[in-house]
Amino acid sequence: MEVARLGRKRVVMDNEKTEKKKNRTSKKAVAKYVENNYDRLELKVPKGKKDIIKAHAEKYQGEVGMIRTLGHIPKGSVNGFINRAIDETIARDVKENEANEKT
Prior knowledge:
The chain is α+β, with helices and mostly antiparallel strands. The chain is built from three helices and four strands. It folds into two domains: 40 residues; 63 residues, no CATH class. The strands form two sheets. Strands 1-2 form a two-stranded antiparallel sheet.
């Protein structure tokens, strides 16, 4: 970090100010993208279950590549694991429903 001292005042050099501005702009862009492309859900689980889900996701949630609802999901992602569980459950329910309608 480049800092110049002028008397008692610290003056941050321009390159650091520019970097901070870029970071702020990048965060705003990401927040805008997320707001426009995702819905948020709040999930409540009993105390201790979060740690179980996280451990399971880290152990079994491999690098899954593209998921139709979320795009790329990194290895060990709890969010990715939950979305995969939702997608698989919906697909299973639809398949079972279609099988029941045929009989």
